[in-house]
Amino acid sequence: MPLDGCINHAVIPSEGISAASHLFALIVESELRAASASAFSDESEADYLQASIAAMDERLSSYALIARAAISVTVPLLTRLFSEKFAHLQQGRGFSDPTQTLEELYSLLLITGHVLADEGQGETPLVPDAIQSQFMDVMETDKHPVVILCGSIIKFAEQSLNPEMRASFFSPRLMEAIVWFLARWSATYLMPPDENKENASSDNHKAKHHIKVLLNFCEEDNQGKPVLDLIIHISMTTFISYPGERTLQELTCQELLHGLVRRKNVCVHLVELDSWRELANAFANGRTLFSLNSAHQRSLAQTLVLSASGMKTPEASSQYVRNLTNHMTANLVELSSRSDLKCVAEQPDIILLVNCLLERLRGASSATEPRTQRAIYEMGYKVLNSLLMFMEVYKHESTVVYLLLRFVVDWVDGQIIYLEARETAIVVGFCMRLLQLYSSHNIGKVI
């Protein structure tokens, strides 16, 4: 069997398909039994079940290869198991400890995600060949076995928005699996570009019609917008309701949300959602999201700025970026202008605020594109004097100095090819002053 997941079912005899389905059923049964047993186990034998999703990728990918060899059997199996576990969870609510069932659902989400979709690796992944070549006789989208399975998982994920359900069942660990699944699944099935619908593995009309039936589920004119809106609400929930859960928030920022804005056809709908505007407003003007760590601040800022590509005009994109960054720059300018800055600068909360704002501006700078370049230039220009002040005040605070220099590097790198002579002179002059300040305080130091 090829290792890239491409399986030609025409050359797999019925005995092979039967053997693969039986083997996969045994694997899933074993995984669920181990997951259930690990729920209350403190022994080292359970460590591999508690490993990160990334660490389990190789094992789960091998399971997916087996499942795809008998996809017509394994997809209904996964649907049945997922429905049973979810029903068991609801039936036992308030009466029994759900930990074992939650661990089983965690494993099912990871296994199913690998079966249904491939990793993008920088490109929009196609529907796996094994799925394209099966279920040819299904003519209605809502009756497609893959759609039924995906719909079940999406409905389950939606339950995490209910505060009572979230408190009862949706642990940070289970939310990690949900966010990971949505990130991997959405890259293939959510608002797929038109060319993906034409890339059926077979040239015949029936195969092309089948792939359209499957992908119609989350097209723009079907369930695409409601599912996209749900994903944003789930993302906000991970930020607000799971403070300090770094792995969960990393998956949300760097995998789920960042994956969405890589596709312009998704951004067009993303920026029209009230939920996305609420996220952008909370990030730009609120205090809640300052609880994210610095790397996630940077990633979320980059993601929000990249979504500007979905605006209808360059002017709208620029205004969107200005609205997103004006409060950040105003905060830095106001702080740097305080008469007591040298007295308060070393306070932990002030250092944290400065670091967060610098990371956000750095993330925005790294998302510079032609239609947002001017707004990003203005963002950096507003804080030039503030940066010089902070370089002086924080000369012995290496973390702040490092972030400050990193922001300047990213900002200049994104701007330099667009600048006219006057603007270039301003930027070069600022950089020279900054370097002089840095060198006067940091001779012999390397950051």
From TrEMBL:
Its main location: cytoplasm. It comes from the Eukaryota. It is found in: Cytoplasm; Nucleus. InterPro entries: XPO4/7-like (IPR044189). Keywords: Cytoplasm, Nucleus, Protein transport, Transport. Belongs to the exportin family. PANTHER family: EXPORTIN 4,7-RELATED, EXPORTIN-4. This is Uncharacterized protein. It comes from Datura stramonium (Jimsonweed).
